Each structure stands twice: as structure tokens, then as C-alpha cells.
Amino acid sequence: MALKSKLLLIILDGVPYRNWRRLFGNLEGWVQSGDARVWTMRSVLPSTSACCYASIHTGVSPQVHGIRSNEERFRVGQPDLFSEITGAGGKTGAVTHSYWSEFFNRYPFDLVRDMEYDEPGGPITHGRFHTMTGYNARNQMTPSDVDLFATLTMLTERFAIDYGILHTCTLDSMGHRFGHDCHEMDHACYAMDGMLAAFLPRWLDSGYEVIVTADHGQTDRGHHGGREDLQQDFALYYFGAAKGPKEEVLLDQLQLAPSILKRLGVKAPATMKAKAFLG
Question: How many CA atoms lie within 13 A of 21 on its CB side?
């Protein structure tokens, strides 16, 4: 079954709104030229990574899906983007941290079995994952983002996926290590923006709509999890033909999943109660 459109979701973990708008010159250049639109989106609470991952794909709050910390992990029970898209006949791909595989395919993550899989009968049709095992403030254990962008591109060109997600923790890890107001973070955002810019036109030329955003923000002390604009708010950039609200409208993270399904022409399940922001 052919879906109405195809879309890639790029999640750059842990980038506050302020740093998006001042340090991502390529993304801002596309907004300035009219090729992209940008809004502010606010994360769920707690504004903790795993909680946000589960909410991004299910459209329900942590209090509903049950992932309330990074340590609380299991196969989420609510309908999610992967299950709904594959159920509608689409093909999905994920180039992400292993948590996404645990939440939306199977738990626990098996390093050998689950690092890479191609499973036409599963919710994630094509999965390529990393674990960041051994991560701490002195050793980020993050893959090169060029490698991740190239892997997602491979999934689009080799398998013609309809929906793909890429998630990288590089900037979140840099933020925890250095904070978000420093030379190191200025350069990290600049480098990420340049790496992304090398691949984004190729995805657009292949017919994909693209959303680039974060899971949550982060403070100048490198913290998130609580209720504060710096911890919760981030930018969302959209490359596509759909109409959306005015730029000053604050988006709710729970609107992301139903919006993606609407763009693909897949009916949102009853559990996704937030209103889609893309026409």
C-alpha cells in the first residue's frame, strides 16, 4: 500500500531553543529563504530523554505510557508511529539509540541480535542502533553524526522506507559535559549544522519531507528533566508542503506523532488525542 507521502524525523538530543536559533546557520538560512518553517515546541514532563522518546512516538504523556526516567524501560504498550505506519502497509527505519528499539520493538536490547536488523513483519522494518555503553562526562561514547546521517540515507535509498527516524545524543552529551554557553557548545552546534546540511538536500531531492527538532532543551549548567523554558523548549524545523500554524504558536510535543501520521495519510489511533499541527 502506498502512503500519501514519506517523511524523515531528525532528533538532535538536548538542544535548547536559544541555541537552535542562533547557532544553526544552515537551518536558519533555509527558513530565511522560505524553504523551511520553524516553531517552538515544548516537551512533556519530566523533560528526561527516555520519557520524551516514548512520548514523541506514542503521542501520550509519560504518566500514561509509563516511561518516567531513563532507568525505567520496557516495551511500550500504546500504539506508536512504527506500529501504525507498518500496519498501514508502510516501511519504517530507525537509526537511533537502542532505547527506541526497546520501547517500540522488543525489550531488553540484545547487543548481537538487535544492533542491526531487517524485519519485514516487525514494527521497525529496518533498524540500526547504538548503545553508548560506558558513557560518562569524560567519554561521550557517541558515534560520528556523519556516520548516522549516512546510515539513514542508506536506508532511504536501499530500502525505500516511508518513515525514518534518526536520533543522536552528541549535543546532549556535550551539554552535560560543558553546559550550553561555552566555546565547546558553539562549535558542536556549528559542526552538527554543517553535517546535517550535507545530507538534507539529498533527502528532499528523494521526495522526503523532513522534520528537524529535539527531544528537550538543556540549561547552561547542562541539566534537563524539570519544568523550565530552557529545559523544555526547543525548535522544530519543517521542510515540506503542508500548511501549519503561525510561527508564534507554541507546539506541544504530543502533537508530533499525530502530525507525522497525518502527513503520511495514516489515521491516528484514538490514544493520540493531541491535534496535528501540520495540514
Answer: 13
Strands 126-130 and 6-12, bridge-based pairing: unpaired
Cis peptide before 46 (omega within 30 of 0): yes
The mean pLDDT value of the chain amounts to 98
| Per-residue model confidence as pLDDT tens digits over 205-247 | 999 999 999 999 999 999 999 999 999 999 999 999 999 999 9
pLDDT at 146 over 90: yes
Q: Please report where in the chains the cell 501520550 appears, as a residue.
A: 60
Question: What CATH number labels 6-264?
Answer: 3.40.720.10
| E strand residue ranges, 83-232 | 92-97, 116-118, 126-130, 163-168, 208-213
- Cell triple for residue 64? 500514561
Are 65 and 269 in contact by the 8 Å Cβ rule? The answer is no
- Strands 126-130 and 92-97 turn out to be parallel
Residues 6+ apart with CB under 8 A from 45: 51, 61, 62, 226, 227, 232
pLDDT digit string, tens, across residues 159-194: 999 999 999 999 999 999 999 999 999 999 999 999
Percentage of residues in the chain having pLDDT higher than 70: 100
Cα(47)–Cα(234) distance, integer angstroms: 11
